[in-house]
Amino acid sequence: MTIGIPTHHGSRRWILLVCLFVLILVPVDADGVISYLEGSVTVRRAGNTVAADIGTQLQQGDVVVTGPRSTVVIRLADAADIKLRENSSVDLSEIGDRVEVGLNSGGLFSRIFGRLLGGFDVRADTVVGGVRGTEFFVAYGRTIDDLPDVWLCVNTGVVDVTVLETGASMPVREGEGVNILAGTRLTDARRYRWTERLNWNMDPSEGEIFDDTDLDAAYADLLDQDYD
């Protein structure tokens, strides 16, 4: 086989074709990217489900799901990272100057490292957490009357937690956690032992990413203090 060297005009045409190919491969409206994953991770978009990989581009409206013994780290709007625990699902509801993600099931770590003009919110059923800090964790717990408890704890900064149904709100500060019983009753913020066992790391160069905290066992810590 003979490979010819393009002429001046042919070279210009070849460069144009390559540029078009790159534009097709990388969506111009991508809002996020998967920076790390292990195990089974899928992305649902417009009714289609595909297997994810490191480098997969994500858009507003995508749903990301992790399977058993799986985790994923997603960079959003080049200003925040989120990490899903195993058996979790999250909606990328809004991504841009403002970021909002919806936790459908499981657990979610959030880390904000850049400026978001419109803020960063995580919603879980009837609860919303608005961030003024940098790192926090949200997860579903025990289910009562068909409505699950929602747990939230803060590693650094402050998170304003609001129960939409009642309007009750509370700032949760660094090192504190809060439980929203049946998604409606907001407990006092306090320090819980189980929050110390969580793996907050999202950088594989700094060690293990997967969070293997036994949340069922840790939940006994909340039950002892929050239920009458």
Q: What keywords describe this structure?
A:
nine-stranded mixed β-sheet; nine-stranded antiparallel β-sheet; 2 helices; disordered N terminus; mainly beta; 228 residues; Jelly Rolls
Topology (elements, then pairings):
Blueprint: H1 8-25, E1 32-38, E2 41-45, E3 48-51, E4 57-58, E5 63-66, E6 71-76, E7 80-84, E8 89-94, E9 98-105, E10 107-112, E11 119-124, E12 127-131, E13 135-144, E14 147-156, E15 158-163, E16 169-173, E17 177-181, E18 185-186, H2 215-226
Parallel strand pairs: 9-11
Antiparallel strand pairs: 1-4, 1-6, 2-3, 2-5, 5-8, 6-7, 7-10, 8-9, 10-13, 11-12, 12-15, 13-14, 14-17, 15-16, 17-18
Q: N-to-C SSE series? A: HEEEEEEEEEEEEEEEEEEH
Shape: globular
> How is the biggest beta sheet arranged?
9 strands, antiparallel
Q: How many separate domains? A: 1
Annotation field: number of helices: 2
Unreliable segments of 5+ consecutive residues: 1-29
Structural class: mainly beta
Mean pLDDT: 81
- Neighbour order of strands in the largest sheet: 4-1-6-7-10-13-14-17-18
Q: Any idea what the CATH architecture is?
A: Sandwich
The total count of strands amounts to 18
Instruction: Look up the CATH topology.
Output: Jelly Rolls
CA-atom Rg in angstroms: 21 Å
- CATH level 1 name: Mainly Beta
Which range best describes the helical content: under 10%, 10-25%, 25-40%, 40-55%, 55-70% or over 70%? 10-25%
Proportion of β residues?
35-45%
Distance between the termini: 81 Å
